[in-house]
């Protein structure tokens, strides 16, 4: 089964520098097969392992690079289901305005109640299970509806990807 690995807050330079060549080699060393990375921001698609690879990779990153990086994972079917559940299929014509924040767990009802959408208008957020769908009317760069805010309000770890990246990862996972 193909698994999609999403690393939170990694960069090619500066803080939390994690080269994709290192990631690919580490994943191969950890028993992953058919390893493919996408972009330079911590996206990988692998075969041969289960969801437990996330914790194993987190520990490896800490041991080898001294970084505290959260790793979230989804199966091909989970990612396909997420794409099918997009609450704004008509908005993907502008795929950089539609994002998905992958969450480490589904937030509780009490935590969801803290997410009042009014202060973020015209931006929108729909939390559906372990994903938060985000629509940025004027782009994500100026929005107050950030991954950090979602993590604080929902009490979970999250990492966001734009719709282009989500669909590219699904294509890679289906290969």
UniProtKB/TrEMBL annotation:
Pfam families: DUF1697 (PF08002)
Entry superkingdom: Bacteria
Protein name: Uncharacterized protein (DUF1697 family)
Source organism of this protein record: Longispora fulva
Lineage of source species: Bacteria, Bacillati, Actinomycetota, Actinomycetes, Micromonosporales
């Amino acid at each position: 089964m193909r698994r999609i690995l999403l690393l939170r807050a990694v960069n090619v330079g500066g803080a939390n520098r994690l080269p994709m060549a290192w990631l690919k080699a580490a994943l191969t060393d950890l028993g992953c097969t058919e390893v493919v990375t996408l972009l330079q921001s911590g996206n990988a698609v692998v075969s041969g392992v289960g969801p437990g690879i996330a914790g194993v990779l987190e520990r490896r990153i800490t041991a080898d690079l001294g970084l505290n990086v959260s790793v979230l994972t989804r199966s091909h079917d989970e990612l396909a289901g997420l794409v099918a559940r997009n609450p704004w299929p008509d908005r993907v014509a502008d795929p950089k305005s539609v994002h998905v924040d992958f969450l480490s767990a589904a937030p509780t009802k009490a935590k969801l109640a803290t997410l009042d959408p009014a202060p973020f208008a015209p931006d929108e957020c729909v939390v559906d299970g372990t994903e938060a769908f985000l629509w940025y009317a004027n782009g994500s760069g100026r929005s107050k509806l950030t991954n950090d805010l979602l993590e604080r309000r929902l009490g979970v770890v999250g990492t966001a990807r734009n719709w282009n990246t989500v669909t590219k990862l699904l294509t890679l996972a289906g290969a």
